[in-house]
Amino acid sequence: MIGLETKLEKLIREIREEPFRILSNNCFHKSFQFKRKCRELGITARVVICLGLNRAKWFGHWVTIPVPHAWGEVEGKRIELGQPPGTPGLWETVGENVKPVIAIWI
User: Fold this and answer.
1) Model confidence pLDDT, tens digit, residues 25-35
2) What is the distance between the alpha carbons of residues 106 and 32, in angstroms, rounded to a whole number?
3) For residues 45 and 74, is the Cβ–Cβ distance under 8 A?
């Protein structure tokens, strides 16, 4: 029998590896999918939605911009789900670098 922690790690890996699409499979969609699947496994998870600041490369220059972002949370641990850790996204932003300014826990 696979332990709960191993099932959680497998779930996180599967969701991160799904292709990121800005309109249909982004960090918001993936975070709510994570919460739903955690509930099915009997794991208490939350979704954090925020407006945060992140560094982005625009026209060859690094600037700090406001970005909407979401991630999953289990036992107070932030779990980035949009893409594999360290993978640059749109405008070379990296999800784990988002610094929340305003956040809502769901």
Assistant:
1) 999 999 999 99
2) 9
3) yes
